[in-house]
């Protein structure tokens, strides 16, 4: 079972993709969207706290 998993992982890596089928562009997109979402939520909660 471990040997089969290793082959799948190395095949995905050799194809230039990470686990889950995301390439570098997909990972960068996820990181950028996550950072934007976190900053937006922090900004919204800080503005809401000032009103009260």
Structure explained in plain terms:
The chain has 52 residues and is mainly alpha-helical. It has a domain at 22-52. 79% of the residues lie in helices and 0% in strands. The protein contains 2 helices and no strands. The longest helix is centred in the last third of the chain and has 28 residues, at 24-51. The chain is rod-shaped and about 45 Å long. The termini are far apart. The relative contact order is 0.08.
Secondary structure layout:
Blueprint: H1 2-14, H2 24-51
Provide the low-confidence segments as ranges: none
Q: Compute the CA-based radius of gyration.
A: 19 Å
Strand content: under 5%
Number of helices: 2
Largest sheet: none
- Which whole number gives the mean pLDDT? 74
Global outline: rod-shaped
Q: Structural class, please? A: mainly alpha
- Per DSSP E runs of 2 or more residues, the count of β-strands stands at 0
What is the helix/strand order? HH
Report the end-to-end length measured between terminal Cα atoms: 57 Å
| Helix percent band | over 70%
